[in-house]
Amino acid sequence: MFSDDNFYSQLVGFLKITLPLAAIALMSTVFLFARAPSPETTIPYAEIEEIARELGLSGAQFSGVADDGSVIEVTARHTRPDGKILTAEVLSAGIDTVDGTRIDINAGRGEIDNDAQTARLTGLTRLVTSNGYEMETTGITANFTTGRIESEGALEVQAPFGALTAGQLIIETPEGEAGQVMLFQNGVRLIYTPQQ
């Protein structure tokens, strides 16, 4: 029994020394590895104030009826004024023509001129019509008053009857007509695919 008490006393004496030393070692590693905040994690208050001062509108939507009766709706993820022009990012335009055709236009950026009643979509611009046309071009101008749509450059088209390329596209309602027509011009090349 004497040896068990002796072992217990030695163990307690050993733990009285090692446990405080282990605690000191743990505390020193906490302070040793603690770091000051890096400059990358600080909040850039100057940039936030600049963004807050900049005028802008998120989720803007413009709509109207053209002279030919087409209903035009333009939405933008973000717009900001630049003089009399609104510059916009991620634009979508939807046009419902009098003859029932739907034209959807999407572009990465553009400008909306309220005085001229036009929207100019720039960058890669995609048009899809409800009667089976899919087109890509470098830019489109849409006139809210007349309903006229005009491409700014060459375009590639997938049509119900095949594929074609053209230097320019104009969609408009000719005078005295009831519906819009698509006019492909300036070097049109057509690959006709017969329907099965």
Please summarize what this structure is:
Keywords: Membrane, Transmembrane, Transmembrane helix. With 196 residues, the chain is of the alpha+beta class.
List the helices and strands and how they pair.
Layout lengths: L1 H32 L11 H9 L3 E9 L5 E12 L2 E12 L5 E12 L4 E12 L4 E10 L5 E3 L3 E5 L2 E5 L1 E5 L8 E5 L3 E4 L4
Largest sheet: 12 strands, antiparallel
Cα(first) to Cα(last) distance is 103 Å
The CATH topology of the domain at 57-192 turns out to be: lipopolysaccharide transport protein A fold
What is the structural class? alpha+beta
State mean pLDDT (0 to 100 scale): 82
What would you report as the Rg, rounded to the nearest angstrom? Answer: 34 Å
| CATH class bucket of the domain at 57-192 | Mainly Beta
- Counted by DSSP, the helix tally is 2
CATH architecture call of the domain at 57-192:
Sandwich
Q: Tell me the β content.
A: over 45%
Q: Superfamily at the CATH H level of the domain at 57-192? A: Lipopolysaccharide (LPS) transport protein A like domain
Binned, the helix content reads: 10-25%
* Unreliable residue runs: none
Helix-strand sequence: HHEEEEEEEEEEEE
Shape: elongated
* Count of beta strands: 12
Protein name: Lipopolysaccharide export system protein LptC
Keywords: Membrane, Transmembrane, Transmembrane helix
Transmembrane segments: 12-34
Would you kindly provide a written description of the structure presented here, covering whatever features stand out?
It is a single chain. This protein is of the alpha+beta class and 196 residues long. It has a domain of 136 residues: Lipopolysaccharide (LPS) transport protein A like domain (lipopolysaccharide transport protein A fold), CATH 2.60.450.10. Helices cover 21% and strands 48% of the residues. The chain is built from 2 helices and 12 strands. Strands 1, 2, 3, 4, 5, 6, 7, 8, 9, 10, 11 and 12 form a 12-stranded antiparallel beta sheet that branches. It is elongated, with a radius of gyration of 34 Å. Keywords: Membrane, Transmembrane, Transmembrane helix. This is Lipopolysaccharide export system protein LptC. It comes from Octadecabacter dasysiphoniae.
